[in-house]
Design a protein that fits this description.
545 residues, 61% helix, globular, two-stranded parallel sheet, 6 strands, mainly alpha, two-stranded antiparallel ribbon, 22 helices, 2 domains
């Protein structure tokens, strides 16, 4: 293999990715992020706040702010965009061909990392292209300086994205981190990296915030503005009054900062190569370090068990046994045979469906998981402020919620369950099971708020209990994957916990002791709309079969 092999592999993988509709969605999201980073002068939502000030919208300010926003959000969300590269090779059986080829494991890992970098860099490129358009659209400065606008992207945005791309490769080669656990772990890790990267003592210069902030403070002092006690903030925040402006012409990176960027790139390469120690590149002869486990193409013992749980209320003659004919293991009865299915009453059928959905949703959950739920519940009854425990209670089940709407696809029974005569009843039972799980995990704060006559808090709690499983179900049905809900919900939860009242579905943001978020009726109505959307998608998908 030549030195060009990783580049060829990366380019081929990148070309395959850009053909997907999801790639166009990610680019549109990058355009939205650029617009968000340069808000209207009268906006009360900002990305960067320098103690109540912002820079005039020059090329230097817009380039730096957009680059910092890209480093902040693409580091967090970009991981979820690119983390499926190795697993896709296993699912499509391309990995089996690679295992028989002379391609070396380091070459493969570097190629996948470079492919991830290309995807993330293309998103950063969209930010860079949109930034000058935003400068001219805002109309505060007509002088265009391409160097001042583009240099921050090279120094601030790209190095963290290389580290993110390498982390995606690393997570895909570690068994514990391949699935939903890895999604949650990266959310926590990225928050630590992003928040810690804004501090003065951040290793390797962090994400470049400190250098930019010091230069901005110096510009404020030169213009006679008192900076004592003024805080610098980066991230989507709400301000009471539109920010005042000052002139800032950018910052000049010193040698130490340039060196830290190079070291950060080297760390990213080292992280990408680290799995060489255990990753077997899909070689079945190497038990330790095999690639991600593929979903079996034929029903096996594990899938049969899952079918038994999901189809527990159907007669066995109507669902067949693993290994028999049909796409999900259905036997083909003789032409003269008849299958009799006794339909229970409507009310009884729903409750049996609900019981089955609860068994499926909780199936496979470790006793340790329930132990944590019990501990959080006890703490919720003991703490003086029960509402403060609700965010913890409603982040722990994220991996279980994400199974809503996806299990029938995962275990190959979607076609069979789609033949159920009243599809809405099964979907309603699935959502209700999610509501029950949500209520159980957050029962302590609800009881405590009811005991203190905090009915506004109880109403917000009820709205959240309806919304979370509805969101999981709608995204699961629409995307057929766990990952989308996990990413969306983690972001929604983070914004609610950090005081964004407009997105507070739990009632934890309070004003004068009353929840400041949306009305519980509005939240509950949104939950019903999401359930209706899930039903519409599932019905439409069944109609075109």
């Amino acid at each position: 293999m030549t030195a060009r092999a990783p580049i060829a592999l990366a380019v081929a993988d990148f070309r395959e990715r850009v053909r997907r509709p999801a790639y166009a969605v990610t680019l549109l999201a990058a355009v939205g992020l650029a617009c968000l980073a340069v808000p209207d002068a009268a906006s009360h939502w900002v990305i960067m706040d320098v103690g109540g000030y912002r820079g005039v919208y020059t090329s230097a300010w817009i380039g730096t702010v957009t680059a910092l926003a890209g480093a902040l959000w693409l580091t967090m969300a970009g991981f979820y965009v690119v983390r499926d590269a190795i697993a896709r090779d296993e699912r499509t059986r391309v990995g089996h061909l690679l295992a028989a080829s002379p391609l070396r494991t380091p070459t493969y890992l570097v190629g996948k990392c470079l492919s991830n970098v290309l995807v993330l860099a293309s998103m950063a490129g969209v930010l860079a292209v949109t930034a000058p358009l935003m400068q001219f659209a805002r109309g505060e400065s007509g002088a265009f300086d391409p160097v001042a606008l583009l240099l921050p992207f090279a120094l601030i945005t790209l190095p963290p994205l290389v580290l993110t791309a390498a982390a995606a490769v690393l997570f895909e080669t570690v068994p514990l981190l391949r699935g939903g656990v890895g999604n949650v772990v990266w959310f926590v890790v990225s928050m630590v990296l992003v928040l810690g990267g804004q501090s003065r003592n951040a290793p390797l210069g962090g994400i470049g915030v400190r250098q930019a902030a010091e230069s901005m403070r110096a510009a404020l002092v030169e213009q006679g503005i008192d900076v004592s006690g003024r805080e610098f903030s980066l991230g989507l925040t709400s301000v009471a009054e539109p920010l005042r402006t000052f002139r800032w012409d950018g910052f000049t990176p010193d040698g130490a900062f340039m060196g830290s960027r190079l070291v950060l790139l080297a760390v990213g390469i080292a992280v990408a190569l680290l799995p060489t120690l255990w990753f077997g590149r899909f070689d079945p002869a190497r038990g330790l370090g095999r690639g991600p486990v593929a979903v079996p193409s034929k029903p096996g013992r594990g899938r049969a068990k899952a079918q038994d749980e999901i189809l527990g209320d159907l007669p066995r003659a109507g669902r067949g046994e693993p290994g028999m004919g049909g796409p999900v293991g259905l036997p083909v009865p003789p032409a003269t045979a008849t299958v009799t299915m006794t339909a229970p009453g409507r009310g009884r059928a729903f409750w049996r469906l609900l019981a089955g959905e609860l068994r499926v949703l909780a199936g496979g959950v470790s006793p340790w998981w329930w132990l944590v739920v019990a501990a959080v519940t006890v703490a919720g009854f003991a703490t003086p402020e029960p509402a403060t425990l609700l965010p913890l209670a409603w982040i722990w089940p994220v991996l279980v919620w994400s199974r809503l709407g996806t299990l029938r696809v995962e275990h190959g029974v979607e076609g069979l369950l789609g033949a159920y005569p009243t599809m809405w009843r099964g979907l309603l039972a699935e959502w209700t099971a999610g509501v029950v799980l949500t209520a159980v995990t957050g029962i302590a704060p609800a009881v405590r708020m009811a005991a203190t006559a905090d009915w506004a808090g109880v109403g917000s709690w009820a709205g959240g209990a309806l919304l979370v499983p509805a969101l999981a179900l709608a995204l699961g049905v629409a995307t057929r994957t766990h990952r989308v809900f996990q990413v969306v919900y983690l972001g929604l939860w983070y914004l609610a916990v950090n005081g964004v009242a407009a997105l507070d579905y739990m009632g934890v943001v309070r004003s004068e002791g009353v929840p400041a978020g949306p009305s519980p009726l509005a939240v509950g109505g949104l939950a019903l709309l999401l359930v209706g959307a899930a039903l519409a998608v599932r019905t439409a998908r069944h109609a075109v079969r």
